From TrEMBL:
Protein name: OPSP protein
Entry's Gene Ontology cellular component terms: membrane
Pfam families in UniProt: 7tm_1 (PF00001)
Species whose genome carries this gene: Calonectris borealis (Cory's shearwater)
Recorded family membership: Belongs to the G-protein coupled receptor 1 family.
Gene: Opsp
PROSITE patterns: G_PROTEIN_RECEP_F1_1, G_PROTEIN_RECEP_F1_2, OPSIN
GO biological process: phototransduction
Spans through the membrane: 79-101, 126-153, 165-185
């Protein structure tokens, strides 16, 4: 899940740089692509490994059928980790995404009357596709983050295993939606279907 959100943040920044840049995108140079992939996975590893070394812990969640960060324990060790996860793996990437797409939408509005080339139209379709991916991701992960924070900071027993099932399933299934969205919003793929 963290890799998915970080990848969306990197992708949004890359789209912003590509669309607002003055030069054509170089489709033969994969250096930026590999850098984004390595950055996404490294950042995610940095934030998912600490429970293996004693900062918080992993354990069963909800009805005990899935594993997650121990967000039921209210000791300082767990609270600090959950708060850091929330800030560095949800809030900051989301701010990057909103900033990148906000600036990109402003740039598109400015040039929409001047440049109606097929390259820019294609980039606008990609932008729509990525924005839909981000919205779906947030619809999947915000309920889970809300439940985790309520369990951490709310009254004991406020979040029962039954209440946590739906947000957990939504969060775990979030990686399935990006390929589906890509298939339906990508003209090249939909033509093949």
């Amino acid at each position: 899940g963290i890799v998915s959100l970080i990848s969306l943040a990197v992708l949004s920044y890359e789209r912003y740089c590509t669309m607002t840049g003055t030069t054509e995108a170089d489709t033969t140079n994969y250096r930026k692509t590999w850098t984004g992939i390595v950055l996404s996975w490294t950042y995610s590893l940095v934030w998912t490994a600490p429970p293996l070394f004693g900062w918080s812990s992993y354990g069963p969640e909800g009805p005990g059928t899935t594993c997650s960060v121990n967000w039921h324990s209210k000791d300082a060790n767990n609270v600090s980790y959950v708060v850091c996860l929330f800030i560095f793996c949800l809030v900051i990437p989301f701010v990057i995404i909103v900033y990148s797409y906000g600036k990109l939408l402003c740039a598109i509005r400015q040039v929409s009357g001047f440049n109606k080339g097929t390259g820019r139209t294609r980039e606008q379709r990609i932008l729509i596709m990525v924005v839909v991916m981000v919205i779906c991701f947030l619809l999947c992960w915000l309920p889970y983050a809300t439940v985790a924070l309520l369990a951490m900071f709310g009254k004991p027993g406020l979040i029962t295993p039954a209440v946590s099932i739906i947000p957990s399933i939504l969060a775990k299934s979030s990686t399935v939606y990006n390929p589906i969205i890509y298939i339906f919003l990508n003209k090249q793929v939909s033509k093949m279907l």
